[in-house]
């Protein structure tokens, strides 16, 4: 049947009468609706290139107030290790704990901990029983967090399988402090905060005064997005090199695999088969970058609720791999 003016008029009228149909086809609106329907989600920012496509905070304290990023702290700690190696404060990833910070090792430490390298620590392959999960409470109640972590029973060889343990990254943080002569807070402000133009508030210290290495850091969602953008852009931000590009590249090469999510794990960053480089924190805190797709993402969530790989975190991965990656 030939198209008449009446058909065109009726079609236009139908479109105007159902504007939701047009909106539903917009990929950013579709992402917004899907994300805001997640009851645990506090804030989400998505950037493609230089354009922020989505910035919403349906719950929590908003986009400009600091949120506890939980174990995303481990990934930022890994970046600080990269700066220490670049400056020669720690010779290399193969440097041993017994050489970098022998004073941290207690007399009754588990055999072999002096031989642990910075690589073993940052990739969570120390071989010692973990201090996370059910062991977390006893560890943070101890008088010396570093010594406690280094006294844990050996359940794998140095450099063996990934054993998720905040005690391992806390030892790494203390080694960084010993090697540089600066607190982790000062290192984070000077080497990440200042070049990225973000504030990094002070955070929890252990009984010996070492800042928590791998937990309890806080960033605003906008600051998290700046970190994601820097990771996406090979260590650069606003034309300035924050991290050497070879460190970013090395961070994105899997050296082990998470026994929980199945994701690869590089130098402190999770790596997905679809090309995402991720920092992941309890409750659903995420700093994610996808260099090929030119995407940077920050997500904060209720820090009191779990986000298991087969639960809410899996839902967030579906969000990253589905409507967010579709924006590339």
Summarize the structure.
The chain is globular, with a radius of gyration of 22 Å. An 8-stranded antiparallel beta sheet has the order 2-1-12-11-10-9-8-7, with helices on both faces. The protein has a two-stranded antiparallel ribbon with strand order 3-4. It has a two-stranded antiparallel ribbon with strand order 5-6.
Element layout with pairings:
Layout: H1 5-17, H2 19-24, H3 27-36, E1 41-48, E2 51-56, E3 67-70, H4 72-86, H5 97-100, H6 118-122, H7 136-140, H8 145-150, H9 166-180, H10 184-196, E4 217-219, H11 221-232, E5 236-237, E6 240-241, H12 245-251, E7 256-257, E8 264-265, E9 270-271, E10 277-281, E11 285-290, E12 295-301, H13 312-324
Antiparallel strand pairs: 1-2, 1-12, 3-4, 5-6, 7-8, 8-9, 9-10, 10-11, 11-12
Helix pairs in contact: 4-9, 4-10
What is the name of the CATH architecture of the largest domain? Answer: 3-Layer(aba) Sandwich
- Point out poorly predicted stretches: 1-23
CATH-assigned fold name of the largest domain: Beta-lactamase
Largest sheet: 8 strands, antiparallel
Going by helix content, strand content and strand pairing, the class is alpha+beta
Oligomer state equals single chain
Instruction: Count every beta strand, where a strand is a DSSP E run of 2 or more residues.
Output: 12
Q: What fraction strand?
A: 5-15%
Mean pLDDT: 94
Instruction: Just give the CATH class of the largest domain.
Output: Alpha Beta
Radius of gyration: 22 Å
């Amino acid at each position: 049947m030939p198209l008449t003016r009446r058909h065109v008029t009726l079609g236009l009228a139908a479109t105007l009468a159902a504007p939701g149909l047009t909106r539903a086809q917009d990929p950013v609106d579709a992402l917004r609706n899907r994300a805001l329907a997640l009851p645990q989600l506090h804030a989400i920012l998505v950037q493609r290139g230089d354009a922020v496509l989505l910035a919403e905070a349906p719950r929590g304290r908003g986009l400009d107030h600091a949120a506890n990023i939980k174990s995303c702290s481990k990934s930022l700690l890994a970046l600080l290790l990269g700066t220490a190696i670049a400056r020669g404060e720690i010779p290399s990833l193969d440097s041993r704990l017994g050489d970098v910070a022998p004073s941290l090792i207690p007399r009754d430490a588990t055999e072999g901990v002096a031989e642990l390298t910075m690589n073993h620590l940052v990739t969570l392959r120390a071989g010692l029983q973990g201090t996370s999960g059910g062991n977390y409470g006893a560890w943070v109640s101890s008088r010396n967090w570093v010594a406690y972590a280094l006294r844990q029973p050996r359940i794998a060889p140095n450099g063996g399988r990934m054993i998720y343990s905040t005690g391992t990254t806390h030892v790494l943080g203390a080694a960084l402090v010993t090697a540089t002569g600066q607190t982790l807070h000062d290192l984070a402000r000077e080497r990440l905060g200042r070049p990225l133009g973000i504030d990094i508030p002070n955070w929890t210290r252990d009984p010996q005064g070492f800042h928590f290495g791998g937990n309890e850091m806080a960033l605003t969602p906008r600051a998290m997005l700046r970190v994601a953008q820097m990771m996406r852009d090979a260590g650069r931000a606003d034309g300035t090199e924050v991290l050497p590009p070879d460190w970013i590249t090395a961070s994105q090469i899997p050296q082990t695999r998470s026994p929980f999510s199945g994701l690869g794990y590089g130098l402190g960053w999770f790596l997905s088969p679809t090309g995402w480089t991720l920092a992941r924190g309890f409750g659903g805190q995420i700093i994610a970058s996808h260099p090929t797709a030119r995407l940077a993402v920050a997500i904060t969530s209720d820090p009191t609720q779990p986000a298991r790989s087969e639960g809410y975190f899996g839902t967030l991965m579906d969000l990253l791999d589905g409507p967010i990656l579709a924006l590339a």
